[in-house]
TrEMBL record:
CDD domains: ABC_NrtD_SsuB_transporters (cd03293)
GO MF entries: ATP binding; ATP hydrolysis activity
Any Pfam family matching the protein: ABC_tran
Native organism: Sodalis ligni
Protein name, entry field: NitT/TauT family transport system ATP-binding protein
């Protein structure tokens, strides 16, 4: 289990939208803390507000009320120390640029020295196993490779917090497993904090140190499950552990209780 050291605090976040038929309440009242180097996973049924919550955490939208605090300071707008990877990796990549340029482009205003930028991009592509594909364009790559490009671009920011919204949902089972293992390795190597949304309970338990299960909308935290699984993890041996089965059952039970509530 990771060593606990508060990095991000969420205080009584609420979110509602005004419509012609009155307010729609997406998030009821959510509070939690995220520890340094923790892999926190958020799950819940469809419409539970998971993506809305992530966008608030990333500073992309404002809550109706409540506060996000990062290292003791309120989050107002996207923090420089955060990076985000969304599910729709195809739309996030520029098809007319090479893989290398796609990863480099967001760094242009951050690192003025071109040689330094290119060296950093090379390092990130090496880490995700795409150094040899740097000259290609996104449409020449598989779906899993395209998502690796999106991950490399996020890592190039050297984020303290990486926020991921169902990044592997549209991938086949083998590619998904490979990227799960890659993310766990990258997280261990960098020490970054990861906040990860998924619909897949097995993925949540396999990757997470702790899992928040959201209630139905307007969402609150229905329960929290700590996985307590040893590191490093393996797709076969880890999933055969009694602790994996126990955590999986706890998460599934909580989700089903919320779905039938």
């Amino acid at each position: 289990m990771v060593q606990l050291d508060n990095m991000l605090e969420v205080h009584h976040i609420k979110k509602h939208y005004q419509t012609k038929n009155g307010p729609v309440y997406a998030i009821g009242d959510i509070s939690f803390k995220v520890e340094k180097s923790e892999f926190l996973v958020i799950v819940g049924s469809s419409g539970a507000g998971k993506t809305t919550l992530l966008r608030i955490l990333a500073g992309l939208i404002e809550p109706t009320s409540g506060e996000i605090v990062f290292r003791g300071q309120p989050v107002v707008g996207p923090p420089r120390a955060f990076a985000v990877v969304f599910q729709d990796y195809v739309r996030s990549l520029y098809p007319w640029f090479s893989v290398h340029r796609n990863v480099e482009l967001p760094l242009v205003n951050l690192i003025s020295d071109r040689a330094e930028r290119r060296s950093l991009v090379d390092q990130m592509l090496e880490r995700v196993g795409l150094r040899s594909q740097a000259h290609k364009h996104p449409q020449e790559l598989s779906g899993g490779q395209q998502q690796r490009v999106a991950i490399a671009r996020a890592l190039a920011y050297r984020p303290e917090v990486l926020i991921m919204d169902e990044p592997f949902a549209s991938l086949d089972a083998q590619t998904r497993s490979d990227l799960e293992d890659l993310m766990l390795q990258l997280k261990r190597d960098s020490g970054m904090t990861v906040i990860f949304v998924t619909h897949d309970v097995d993925e949540a338990v396999y990757m997470g140190d702790r899992i928040l299960v959201l209630s139905r909308s307007p969402s609150t935290i229905a329960t929290t499950v700590a996985t307590s699984l040893p590191l490093p993890r393996d797709q076969i041996t880890t999933k055969a552990l009694p602790a994996f089965s126990a955590a999986r059952t706890a998460v599934l039970t909580a989700i089903r209780e919320q779905s039938s509530a």
